[in-house]
C-alpha cells in the first residue's frame, strides 16, 4: 500500500536535534489535534516520567502537511499510551479507531518513521507486516512476516498498528511499544517480534471527525520569537478586521514581555495574528518604538486592548493601554493607537495626559482601562481611558478621559474629562473611579440618534454609609459627550449587600441579552463571598432601559449544575459578549482565572427571550476548562484570564478567544498561551 495511505502517521520530534536528549518516534492522528503514541516515546533516562516530555519542545511531522507544534502532553491517558496535543488541527484525515480488538492469527501492518535497513532518518513512513501471536488484557505480541527482512526499528516506538478492512480502508487497532530490531541499520538482532497495546479505550475521546471546539492555539513562538517566562502573553485579547479582508484578526497583549536589543527590558508587547480562511497566520509584534516611545521596565504596554474605527475609514483600529508608561521621569501611563489599513495595522501615535493639555502625575494609571464607543453619535468611535489613580482636588479618587474620534483619528486637541462630580458623587481616596470601563446603548433612544453610554466602575467606592465595596455609574452619551446625568448602582437592592473588599465594578461589559434594544450591564464582583460561602466572586446583570437601569440579578458559579463557589476563583474578573449561537441574542462569557489553584476556567451564559419559565435572559451554557480543550490544569495557568468574542471563521457564529497568561507549551517557559474556540453553542 502506498505511503500516502498512511497520511495519519506522525513523526514526533522531541528536543533540539543534536542534543543528548533529542529523539524521534512515531504516532497516529486519531483526532484533528490529537496524536496517540507509546508511553515510551516520551520516556528517557533523563526524563523517566512521560509528563516530563512537556519540558522539551515537541513537533509532529506528517507526510503531506508538514510540521505542527505540540502544545500539550497527556501522559498515561490509558496504560502504555500517551497523547500529544497539536497547536492546530492537522489538515489530514484522522485514522479510524477499530471497534474490534485483534485476535490471534490476524494480519496487521505497522507504520512508523524509525530507521530502516539502509537509512537512519526518515521523513516518510515505512511499513512492516505482522501476524498476531497471542493476546491478553494488557496487549499482544506480533510476529514479523516471514518474508520481511526488516521489522520495526529505533524511532518506531508509538508506531500505529492497523488492520485493512474489506473496503480497503485502514483502522487503528494498536500502538507498537517495543520490538526486536531485525534488519535495522546498526542492529544485530535476528528477531522481528514486537509488542503492542490496544487502543479501544480511546474511543471515549471526542469523535474522530470533529475537534470539539475546532480550536487553534497561539503562543509567542508563532510570531517567530522565543517565549519568555512570565511575559503574560494572553493577559489581554481583542479582535478586529484591521486590514478589511473580511476576516477578523486577533491582538494579544504581553504586558511583561521584554524588549530592547538584548530583550532585557520588561516593557511589554502586542502581537497581531492576521485572520484567514485557514485560521490565524503568523504573528506580527507591535512595539512602542513604532511611534517613537521608549521602552521602560513596568510600562505594561499591552495590558489592556480595545478596538474601534476612530477615523471611520472602514478599517478597525487598535488602542493599547500602557498604564505604567513613564512620561519623562513620571510613571503616569499612556495609550497607543495603531490605525488599520489595507496592509494591517500602521503606526499611529501615543497619548498621555499632557497630549490632552492636562498634567501627568506618578501613579495616575492612565490607560488602566479603555473602551471604545460613539459617545456623541457623530459616526466616529471615541476612546474612553481610565486613570483610577488620578488625584481630583485633594483626593486620589480616579478620573476618566474620553478622546474624540475624527476623520484624522483620535484628537489630541479636545476631550471630555469625567469624574464623580459628573455623577452627583464625591471624589474620595481610593475610589478607583475608572478602574473598569464599558460602552453600549444602555439608556435612552433605541432608534434615530443613538448614543453610546459610558459605564464606569469604581470598585473602591464606599456607597453611602456602607464600606468600600464598589459602585458603578452609567453616564449617558449626548451631543456634548458623556458628561452628566449619570445613574449609579451597587449591590444593595440588587440581590446582594455591600461588603468591604467585594470590588463591585472591578470588571464591566455590555450586551443586549434579551434583545429589547437596550444593552444590559454586566458588573463583576471578584471579591464577593455569597452568604457563608468562600470568597469566590460573582457578577450582577443590570437590564438597560429608557431612563435608568433595571433591578440587577446576581449570577454565581454554583448556578451551573456542576459549578461551585470556591475560594480564590476570581469569578467576575473578566467578561466578553457576543452572539455565539447566532440566535440574535447577545451571550456572555465570564472568566474565573483563579479556579483550581489558578488553573482557571471560563463559563458561557446564553441570552434569550424572557418568559414565565425564563425570568432572566441569561441561562448557564458551558463550563470550559483546559481539560475540555485538550489541555492540562496547572497552577497559575490562569485560563480565562482574558476573553474576546468575534466570528473568526465567518460561519455566522461568534467564536471565543481565551487567554491563559501563565500557561506554557512543551519546551517553552510559562510565557502564556491563547486558544480560539468555535462551536461553543451548547449547554451542560
Output the keywords:
684 residues, mainly beta, 6-stranded antiparallel beta barrel, 47 strands, elongated
Count of separate DSSP helical elements: 1
Calculate Rg over CA atoms: 28 Å
Q: How would you write the strand order of the largest sheet? A: 1-2-3-6-5-4
Task: Report the end-to-end length measured between terminal Cα atoms.
Answer: 44 Å
Largest sheet: 6 strands, antiparallel, barrel
Share of helix, binned: under 10%
**Low-pLDDT runs:** none
Kindly estimate the percentage of residues that lie in beta strands according to DSSP.
Answer: 35-45%
Mean pLDDT score: 92
Give the overall shape. Answer: elongated
Let me know the number of strands: 47
Kindly name the structural category. mainly beta
Amino acid at each position: 500500500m502506498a505511503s500516502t495511505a498512511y497520511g495519519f502517521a506522525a513523526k514526533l520530534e522531541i528536543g533540539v536535534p543534536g542534543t543528548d536528549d533529542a529523539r524521534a518516534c512515531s504516532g497516529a492522528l486519531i483526532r484533528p489535534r490529537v496524536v496517540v503514541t507509546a508511553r515510551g516515546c516520551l520516556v528517557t533516562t533523563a526524563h523517566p516520567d512521560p509528563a516530563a516530555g512537556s519540558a522539551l519542545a515537541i513537533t509532529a511531522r506528517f507526510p503531506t502537511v508538514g510540521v505542527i507544534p505540540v502544545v500539550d502532553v497527556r501522559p498515561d491517558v490509558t496504560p502504555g499510551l500517551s497523547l500529544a496535543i497539536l497547536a492546530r488541527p492537522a489538515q489530514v484525515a484522522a485514522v479510524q479507531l477499530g471497534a474490534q480488538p485483534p485476535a490471534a492469527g490476524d494480519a496487521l501492518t505497522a507504520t512508523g518513521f524509525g530507521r530502516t535497513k539502509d537509512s537512519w532518518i526518515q521523513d516518510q513512513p515505512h511499513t512492516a507486516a505482522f501476524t498476531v501471536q497471542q493476546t491478553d488484557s494488557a496487549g499482544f505480541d506480533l510476529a514479523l512476516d516471514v518474508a520481511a527482512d526488516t521489522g520495526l526499528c529505533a524511532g518506531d516506538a508509538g508506531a500505529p498498528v492497523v488492520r485493512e478492512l474489506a473496503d480497503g480502508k485502514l483502522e487503528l487497532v494498536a500502538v507498537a511499544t517495543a520490538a526486536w530490531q531485525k534488519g535495522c541499520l546498526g542492529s544485530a538482532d535476528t528477531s522481528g517480534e514486537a509488542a503492542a497495546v490496544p487502543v479501544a479505550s480511546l474511543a471515549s475521546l471526542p469523535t474522530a471527525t470533529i475537534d470539539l471546539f475546532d480550536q487553534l492555539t497561539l503562543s509567542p513562538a508563532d510570531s517567530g520569537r522565543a517565549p519568555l517566562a512570565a511575559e503574560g502573553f494572553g493577559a489581554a485579547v481583542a479582535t478586529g478586521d484591521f486590514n478589511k479582508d473580511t476576516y477578523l484578526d486577533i491582538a494579544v497583549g504581553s504586558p511583561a514581555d521584554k524588549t530592547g536589543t538584548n530583550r532585557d527590558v520588561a516593557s511589554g508587547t502586542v502581537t497581531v495574528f492576521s485572520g484567514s480562511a485557514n485560521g490565524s497566520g503568523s504573528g506580527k509584534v507591535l512595539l512602542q518604538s513604532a511611534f517613537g516611545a521608549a521602552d521602560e521596565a513596568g510600562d505594561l504596554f499591552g495590558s489592556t486592548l480595545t478596538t474601534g474605527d476612530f477615523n471611520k475609514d472602514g478599517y478597525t483600529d487598535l488602542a493599547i493601554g500602557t498604564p505604567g508608561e513613564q512620561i519623562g521621569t513620571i510613571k503616569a501611563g499612556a495609550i497607543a493607537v495603531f490605525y488599520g489599513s489595507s496592509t494591517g495595522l500602521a503606526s499611529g501615535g501615543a497619548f498621555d495626559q499632557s497630549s490632552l493639555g492636562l498634567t501627568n502625575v506618578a501613579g495616575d494609571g492612565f490607560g488602566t482601562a479603555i473602551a471604545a464607543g460613539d459617545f456623541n453619535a457623530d459616526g466616529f468611535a471615541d476612546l474612553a481611558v481610565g486613570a483610577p489613580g488620578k488625584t481630583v482636588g485633594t483626593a486620589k479618587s480616579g478620573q476618566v478621559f474620553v478622546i474624540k474620534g475624527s476623520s484624522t483619528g483620535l484628537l489630541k486637541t479636545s476631550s471630555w474629562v469625567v469624574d464623580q462630580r459628573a455623577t452627583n458623587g464625591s471624589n474620595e481616596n481610593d475610589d478607583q473611579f475608572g478602574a473598569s470601563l464599558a460602552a453600549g446603548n444602555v439608556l435612552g433612544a433605541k432608534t434615530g440618534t443613538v448614543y453610546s453610554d459610558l459605564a464606569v466602575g469604581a470598585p473602591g467606592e464606599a456607597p453611602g454609609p456602607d464600606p468600600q465595596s464598589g459602585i458603578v455609574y452609567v453616564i449617558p452619551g449626548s451631543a456634548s459627550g458623556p458628561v452628566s446625568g449619570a445613574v449609579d448602582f451597587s449591590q444593595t437592592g440588587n440581590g446582594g449587600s455591600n461588603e468591604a473588599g467585594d470590588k463591585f465594578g472591578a470588571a464591566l461589559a455590555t450586551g443586549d441579552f434579551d434583545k429589547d434594544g437596550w444593552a444590559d450591564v454586566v458588573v463583576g464582583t471578584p471579591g464577593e463571598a455569597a452568604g457563608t460561602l468562600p470568597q469566590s466572586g460573582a457578577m450582577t446583570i443590570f437590564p438597560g432601559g429608557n431612563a435608568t437601569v433595571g433591578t440587577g440579578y446576581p449570577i454565581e458559579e454554583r448556578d451551573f449544575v456542576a459549578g461551585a463557589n470556591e475560594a480564590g476563583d476570581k469569578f467576575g474578573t473578566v467578561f466578553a459578549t457576543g452572539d455565539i449561537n447566532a440566535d440574535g441574542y447577545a451571550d456572555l462569557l465570564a472568566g474565573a482565572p483563579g479556579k483550581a489553584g489558578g488553573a482557571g476556567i471560563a463559563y458561557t451564559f446564553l441570552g434569550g427571550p424572557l418568559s414565565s419559565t425564563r425570568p432572566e435572559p441569561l441561562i448557564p451554557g458551558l463550563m470550559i476548562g483546559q481539560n475540555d480543550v485538550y489541555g492540562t490544569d496547572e497552577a497559575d495557568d490562569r485560563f480565562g484570564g482574558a476573553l474576546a468574542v468575534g466570528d473568526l471563521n465567518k460561519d455566522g457564529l461568534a467564536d471565543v478567544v481565551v487567554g491563559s497568561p501563565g500557561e506554557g507549551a512543551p519546551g517553552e517557559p510559562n510565557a502564556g498561551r491563547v486558544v480560539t474556540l468555535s462551536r461553543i453553542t451548547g449547554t451542560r
